[in-house]
User: Fold these one by one.
Assistant:
Number 1:
Amino acid sequence: MLELYQREDCHFCRKVRVVLNELELDYICRISHTGSQQREIMLKLGGQPQVPFLVDQSKGIMMYESDAIVEYLQKTYGKSPQNEVDNNPKVCPIE
Ligand SMILES: N[C@@H](CCC(=O)N[C@@H](CS)C(=O)NCC(=O)O)C(=O)O
């Protein structure tokens, strides 16, 4: 499961939310305002008072920095050419 520690008013967080939505990924949104319980949990996990912060439990990954998070999500969960379904496969006749 993906967890995003974030704040609604943070445009770096918004960038990550947009990509999560584009990739149609389910995630838990942890509202991480200063002084909140989620903020304390984030600090214990990652050590930095900064959002966005992504936790990908299934892969054992925790990371800060919106650009790095976006790149990670696209590489890990984006469509790769190998995964694309070819709806018009070229069929060669057997001679
Ligand atoms: N380079 C970082 C910048 C993140 C950043 O500056 N986040 C701000 C909120 S917009 C933050 O966490 N400030 C400290 C705080 O909220 O305590 C990224 O791209 O993720």
Number 2:
Amino acid sequence: MLKVIQITDMHIMPNAGDALLGIATEKYFRKVLEHAEQHHPDTHLMLLTGDIAQTPVETSYQNVFAMLSEVQTPCRCLPGNHDDPALMQKIFNTAQINCNPIFESEHWQFIFLNSQKPKSAGGHLAEEELALLNKQLNLKKEVQTAIFMHHHILPTDSRWMDTMQVENHEHFIELIVPHKQVKTVVCGHIHQEMEKTQDGILYLGTPSSCFQFKPLQVEFALDDKPPGYRVLEFHDDGAIETEVVWLPVSLEELDLNSQGY
Ligand SMILES: [Fe+2]
């Protein structure tokens, strides 16, 4: 069994202590890391699925790198719409912490895709990302597969959020469905929990390590739920057990009247 912790949408600010919508994002990322370390010390791999930085400056990634180094669990990082992939690759560049797009073990492979659309908050899978996915799925037909990316493939049914859905999601779905080894597709970006099954594939969305968005809204709206993360257990026989863990805190300082982020 492989135990994985997914932490997403940390929105780390250029200066530690700076707040976004009233929330000191770095403080809550640290709390999430501590909670995961304390309750899941048997984790094999930790995944950061994008929007690691709010503005992609070197100091933000260096702060994250320092915090991850203390934890010592192997970490993979992929970019969100707020991130700078080249800067991430420069800083997350060790055996423990890196941006390698493939993780392989005996029973499972994980494929990490970049769903960034240049100059946009929305999602798109570029030809080279789809080519990498296709190649790996053809290469390892017998190995159970989980795919991770920042943006969502299936709609959340919040209209404002779904304007940012991976725009070529139909193409992606056509590509993966014939590959029966694909078991799950996991995203961040949506700042809420989502779990849907389509074509026998489990689609998961994970809350942010800072603030959350209210589900089923026409326009941007914040939720008062606490920071969270996801635990995934990938069993040798292909079974997946997963749960979202919510931190036992309440975000009193959240500016619920904000119009955007
Ligand atoms: Fe995002």
